[in-house]
Amino acid sequence: MDFFTTVGILGVAGLLSLLLAGMHLAVAFLFVAFSGVFVLLNWNAAIALAGETLYSSIATPTYTVLPLFVLMGAFAAASGFAEQAYKSIHRAAARIPGSLAIATSFGSAAFATICGSSLATASVFGRIAYPEMRRYGYDRGFALGSIASSGTFASMIPPSGMFILFAIFTETSIGQLFMAGIIPGLLTATVYAISMYWRAKRNPKLAPISEEEHAVTPKDRVKALRGLWQIALLGTLVIGGMYAGFFTATEAGAIGAIGTLLFGLANGPLRKLDNFRGALRESAQITATLFFIIIGAMFFSRFLGLTRIPYNLTLFLESWDVHRHFILALILLTWFVLGMLIAQTAVFALTLPILFPIVVNLGYDPIWFCVVAMKMNEIAGVTPPVGLNAFGLAGSAGPDVRVEHVYRGVFPFIMCDVFVLILLIMVPSIVTFLPSMMY
Fold first, then answer.
1. What DSSP character marks residue 233?
2. Is residue 152 within 8 Å of 389, Cβ to Cβ?
């Protein structure tokens, strides 16, 4: 093993150690990368490469899609769209066993079409859905598990903030990734709903049916669904416009941000200066953090390039006399283990620049692979001990909720995710159909 490779391995080990110790993701990337380049070359080279990376990592008009969709999500969260989706679907699903949980599943999917943050979705529905479920006598683990797991839909269903990061790390089309996530996201929501119905039917104590639900008429159900028209209009305009080729992902982000702003003003919440300023402040903080992470990840990737680890690993795996599915299984297992220990953003920022070229060289479709990676991201979002959705929900649902309560309820939904993951692997056209039909 030569000196460069040794330094690279020590750099990866050091990065993982710093992340496990709690250092901020971007700071850890920058510190390890700068130290590594300094050891391999010299101080001046480290300074020059850091400066060049600071500019080139984000100096492209394409990346303006990120703050636009973040702003759209912030306006959506502040405008009460999540509560609107939840109440409408709950009323439409009244008297069905597990109706409140089913409303959480499809409500989260509907809200995901205008909010690209998984953590925000789980937190918002924790404030809206959890008190209602407890008021109706729902089992705490069943309620928390359904909210935390359904919150992950915002990672898969466009406009997903994580897919934008994937597009940056892998240089794939943002529009195609958005289209590829629609069917898997809706499929997961449907599988969740079927699981909720089956469990509630078998054990009515998990989700009692209230007297209020028995009073709902078919006319009430139709009227309730009309309450989704604003979300449907925004989702159709943004996603449908990209699919039909009317505008780019960046233009879709701008239209979505303006649309959520106008609806938020018309409905009332964004007329309050505190709400409006809060949405702007939140979007600015998230955008700055994401760009900081992107810069750090790109700098670390260049350091790894100097060590030749990605090149040597690619040669090794391509020469390994095993079926390509075996290598894919090893990658998924690695993501599963790392996702249990480190935040998902860190896992993919570290591994995608290395693993993506390998997988493409093995003959896998790049868009399909990114969607499979996103499904692993959804699983990691609720898996102990570092499931961010579980922590976000525990912090928003109330003082009586601890993160271990959330973890007790997510296991059945993880099994649903594994089932969907197997389907995506066995039937790749579930992912590739919509992107292949784009204009």
1. H
2. yes
Answer yes or no: are the C-beta atoms of 27 and 10 closer than 8 Å.
no
* 114, two tokens: 């205008």
Q: What is the C-alpha to C-alpha distance for residues 394 and 148, in angstroms, rounded to an integer?
A: 9
- Check if the beta carbon of residue 416 is closer than 8 Å to that of residue 188: yes
Tens digit of pLDDT for each residue in 108-124?
888 888 887 787 888 88
**How many angstroms from the chain centroid is the CA of residue 20?**
21
Which residues, given as ranges, of the chain have pLDDT below 70? 1, 439
**Model confidence over 65-81: pLDDT tens digits?**
888 888 888 888 888 88
Q: Are 133 and 363 in contact (CB under 8 A)?
A: no
| Domain ranges within the chain, ordered by starting residue | 3-436
Predicted TM-score (pTM) of the model is: 0.84
pLDDT tens-digit profile of 363-394? 899 999 999 998 988 888 888 877 777 887 88
Which residues are within 8 A (CB) of 83 and not within 5 positions of it... i.e. 6 or more apart?
128
Distance between CA atoms of 110 and 114, rounded to whole angstroms?
8
Task: Calculate the CA 218 to chain-centre distance.
Answer: 35
- Report CA-CA distances (Å) from 161 to 55, 287, 290: 21, 10, 9
Name the amino acid, one letter, at 108.
S
Does residue 131 have a cis peptide bond before it, meaning omega lies within 30 degrees of 0?
Answer: no
What's the confidence (pLDDT) of residue 365? 93
Distance CA 85, CA 168 (A): 31
The string of DSSP codes covering 331-357 is HHHHHHHHHHHS-HHHHHHHHHHHHHH
Who's near 27: CB < 8 A, 6+ residues apart? Answer: 296
Q: What are phi and psi of 57, to 5 degrees?
A: -65, -30
Q: Which residue has the tokens 């008021």?
A: 135
* CA distance readout (Å), 322 to 230, 317, 368: 51, 9, 21
Question: Which amino acid is residue 134, in one-letter code?
Answer: R
Closest CA to 229 of 193, 191, 267: 267
